[in-house]
Design brief:
By secondary structure, this protein is an alpha+beta fold. It has a single domain, classed as Nucleoside diphosphate kinase-like domain (Alpha-Beta Plaits, 2-Layer Sandwich), CATH 3.30.70.141. Helix content is 35%, strand content 18%. It has a 4-stranded antiparallel β-sheet, with helices on both faces. It is globular and about 45 Å long.
């Protein structure tokens, strides 16, 4: 199966900043071969969270999710690489930190599902929708880093 170069979206949640894990998480993402092509530090409004997490409205965890996501700054990321959506989802691990294996971001740094530390788009379509919520195309910079060969690209 041929690998596909694509973009994906990640949101480092307030707990990452509050626990001083930004560098650690970014390092894990980069070491896995994903390239940062967009990054912003933001403090989300309730309205932005409602758009981001609208599919969860009405679920028991929705009000606490909005409270958590507006409790401090977040880092919005656009990442690019081969099979970027799948790669980031595997690196993040299952949503419940108790179910996330060691070696995943949630398995190594997550504490409670309610205070999840990373959001990772679940499809190319979701990624593009989420990217458009936080970034204009001119804010994204897909640059050549010379490591393409090591992460599945042709020379």
């Amino acid at each position: 199966m041929e690998r596909v170069y694509q973009r994906t979206f990640a949101l480092l949640k307030p707990g990452v900043l509050q626990r001083r894990l930004v560098g650690t998480v970014l390092s894990r993402i980069e070491a896995k071969g994903l390239k940062i092509i967009g990054m912003k530090l933001l403090w989300l409004t309730r309205e932005q969270c409602k758009v981001q997490y609208g599919e969860h409205e009405g679920k028991y965890f929705y009000p606490p999710l909005l409270e958590y996501m507006t409790s401090g700054p977040v880092i919005a990321l656009v990442l690019a690489g081969y099979d970027a959506v799948k790669t980031l989802r595997q690196l993040a691990g299952p949503t419940d930190p108790a179910q996330a294996p060691p070696g995943t971001i949630r398995g190594d740094y997550g504490t409670l599902t309610r205070y999840n530390i990373i959001h990772a788009s679940d499809s190319e379509e979701s990624a593009e929708r989420e990217i458009s919520l936080y970034f204009q195309e001119e804010e994204l910079h897909d640059w050549e880093d010379g490591n393409t060969y090591w992460y599945g690209g042709a020379r």
